[in-house]
Every structure is written in C-alpha cells, then in structure tokens.
Amino acid sequence: MTVNRKSADRILIIGPGRKTEGGVTTVIQRIFAELEKSPEFDVRWVASHRSGPIPMKLGQAIIGFLQAAWLMPCAKLIHIHSAAGVSFVRKSIFLWLATLWRKPVIWHLHSPELDFKDFYGRQGWIGQYARFVLQKCKRIVVLSDRWVEIASSYLPADKIRVIYNPIPEVTDSDAPIARADDRILYLAHLIPRKGYSYLIRAFSEVRSTFPDARLVFAGSGEVKQAKALCRALNIENRVEFLGWIGESERAQELEKASIFVLPSFQEGLPMGVLEAMAFGLAVITTPVGGIADVVTNEQNGLLVNPGDVGEIAQRLRTLLADRDRVRKLGDAAAQSVSCYEPAKLAREWKMIYSDVLKLRTPCADSPVEN
User: Fold this and answer.
1) Which of 11, 77, 142, 185 could form a disulfide with 257, with the two C-beta atoms 3.0–4.6 Å apart?
2) pLDDT band at 4 (very low <50, low <70, confident <90, very high)
3) Are residues 189 and 44 in the same domain?
4) What is the edge-to-edge ordering of all strands in the sheet holding 239-241?
5) Are residues 52 and 194 in the same domain?
6) Does some domain include residue 214?
7) 320-355: pLDDT as tens digits
C-alpha cells in the first residue's frame, strides 16, 4: 500500500543506526517500521552511531550530522535517543542544531538506573550541562513508571512521559514450538553490570543435578573472559557463545530455549527480558531499573537479588525440575507483555509527536537571525 505523505509532518529520529549492536537500535527499528505506515508523519531515521572500528564510528558520526543538517530545515520535530555519558554529549550536538532552526525536540532516555543518577544528578559542569540540555526539550521520554520518580528528581516533571520498550512480533502458528526443556538463554551484552559471570557460576552449581542442561550466551562483549571462567569451572562443554545475533536469529534462539536469565545489577528496561517474555520463556531476572514494572515475582517470572549466585542457582534448580511451572510462568509472561506490541507503542509515539507539534510557534520553521 502506498502512503501519501505530501502533507505529512516530517519527523527526524536520531539515534544509533541499523548497524549498531544494542537494544536502542532494536527499539527504533521496531517502532520505525510501524511509523512508516502512518500517512500523517514522514519519519526519517538519522544514524548517529554504528558498531565497528573507530574510523567507521567516526565516519558514521560525520555522515549522521551532515544528514541531519540537510534534513532538519524541512523537519517539524526532532526525536533524539541516547543513553548517559558520552552518548548524551554526542547527541546534544543535534539539539543545538535543532535550536538553530527552532525545531522542537523530544529526548528519549535509555540509561541504566545508576548511570542515570550518576550522570544527570552529577555536580559540576557536566551535570549542569546535561540538565540544561534536557530542560530545552519539549518532552523527555523514560522507559517505565518507576523512572518517572527517579527522573523527576533531576528534570522538569511536567515534561516527562513514559513509553515502554516494544516486544518483537511473535508469529502465531498451529505447530507447537519445539523447546528444549534444559536450554537456558542469556540475551544481552556480556558486560559486568549485566551479571553474566554470576550466571556462569550459578550454572556450574546445578550442572551435576541436571547433566543435560545447556547455557547459551547471545551477545558481544567480554566473551573471552566468560569462556575463561567456564574453563576454570570445567563447564566449557556445557556453555555456548553465539556472539551478537540479529533479529531473526534472536527469534530462533528464543524459540529453542525454555528459560531466560538476566541477573543485572542495573538496567533501563532490557529488551532481552521483554523478548523472552513475549516468546513465553520462564524468566529469571533482578528487580532493577524498569524490570520491576513488568516482572512480578512468582507470577510472570522469578526475581533474584543482584549478585546472589546461590539464589540464581536455586531458581535454576526450581525451573529445571518443574516443566509445568516453566510453562505456566512463560504463558503468564507472554500475556502480561502483549500491551507492548510495536503497533500499540507506535501510537504512543505519535501521540507525543502530535502533542508537541501543537506547542509549536508560528515562527518555528525559521532559523535564528544573526
């Protein structure tokens, strides 16, 4: 179907591009596909970052800025996505470009909880700069209800809005999914704050009781360190490392596994947890960031304390020994996150776009006079 966009409002979405590993790219990609179907908006995705060697990253940053500078005069609204720290500072350049053209800005925050508090609440010039930039935005989007209270401590509460991250499209099929009852999946970067090493240690504690259990890591990061730990614990033949995988490969892994574990120390709202729940896996995770807003202990998942290897191991034993409980938790998880389908969340993005566009002044399309 051809969408007529002659009278559509152009929206620039600025964030990491399709060649970037990470949840932010996945969020944009899923919602962007829905927004492209909307006749009222002409959405353009400007890639400000990509994964790869430094020259590639630098090249993409330059291309992204030039593309934004070319498109911005005809845009009606700028939607910026960033984390904290360096990501925020890089993206702030686009805000100043938008200010030059008097374009309203929506800032979408994807920071983990502790990073958010440390960066936006920091004393000194960097914290003041971050808060000053966000105060110039028309709306500030956070990832869960829990984040409203946290963000309101540092930012204007009247500008904050909540939009959850989208789940993947799960295709209904008459054929049952052939899951492996003893297959455990970790789907995220292998970095310390995600707690991957604690999962490895917990898995080593259950290996003798459940000799058929297998742990699968899908993600880039500290893979060498993780493999070394597996060798030290003598479980390397029971653990598989896939590296970073794309959307279709993730779906395949989510259909194979029956248990998902992400023992993070801090989070925003991790895509891996939402994806696992959407596919009906039994989830073991921690109540950090926005996770507690979507996972209720013993109802649609199991919660553990960050860094507690013994508790993670006990939860694994419970699920590996009780297939019926795995199924019930998975079914409840899938039902509880159905409200985060991309089409539904795309409507929330569009509502904020429409709301902000109503605030525009008559001179909003004119550049600042020198």
Assistant:
1) 185
2) low
3) no
4) 239-241, 214-218, 183-187, 259-262, 282-285, 302-303
5) no
6) yes
7) 999 999 999 999 999 999 999 999 999 999 999 999
Helix-then-strand count for the chain, H and E: 14, 12
Q: Give the model's confidence band at 180: pLDDT under 50 very low, under 70 low, under 90 confident, else very high.
A: confident
- 252 and 291 together in one domain: yes
pLDDT of residue 237: 95
Question: How many separate domains does the chain show?
Answer: 2
| Count of residues making up the chain | 370
Distance CA 36, CA 41 (A): 8
- In order, the DSSP letters of 105-135 are EEEEE---HHHHHHHHT--SHHHHHHHHHHH
Q: Does residue 307 lie within any of the structural domains?
A: yes
In a shared domain, residues 160 and 230: no
Domain-embedded: residue 366: no
Classify burial at 261, counting beta carbons within 10 Å of its beta carbon; exposed 0-12, middle 13-18, buried 19 or more: buried
Confirm whether 370 is domain-assigned: no
